[in-house]
Amino acid sequence: MNRKRYEATVRFFSENKTAYRLLWIIYRVLPYILLFSYPALIVAEFFIMGVTGTWANLIILPFAVLTAVTLLRFMIREQRPYEKYGMNSVFRKTTVGKSMPSRHTASAFIIAMTFLYVNLPLGIIAMTFAVLIGASRVLAGAHFIRDVIVGALVGIIAGLPYFLGIAVTQMKMP
Fold it and tell me: Which of 36, 55, 60, 104 has CB atoms 3.0–4.6 Å from 46's, for a disulfide?
């Protein structure tokens, strides 16, 4: 989106109480739902699969994604829309830089990939949440579309080993 569209989008959500509340729920609440359901998934998988199961992989890949995205954001140092265009975001965010890639989006997608790996119906719900979380970042004026797309791709690509049957804990390093 360009400056004009970001300003119009922020204005729409700022002036429309119902839209604002819905965006607030998606922007603020859905990430916490994923965040708190993720450890429950790990604990359940541990008790179902036991110590020798693949539950450790459910920790390693998401942690690696979070670390990698954090480092990428530090190295890339892209401005956020509200910085670049000199405007407010919907929720008056003040973070400077660290826009590319979206860490919330990458985290949501890798967590959704873990859910997909363990339980398809829960995975579909988590993937829906991840898409909504990514979209909310753009609609709130906190990220550019490219930031969210890159974050989603990082989370999805990092989660592919789950579906390829590759256990991270059993991979041989060169």
Answer: 55
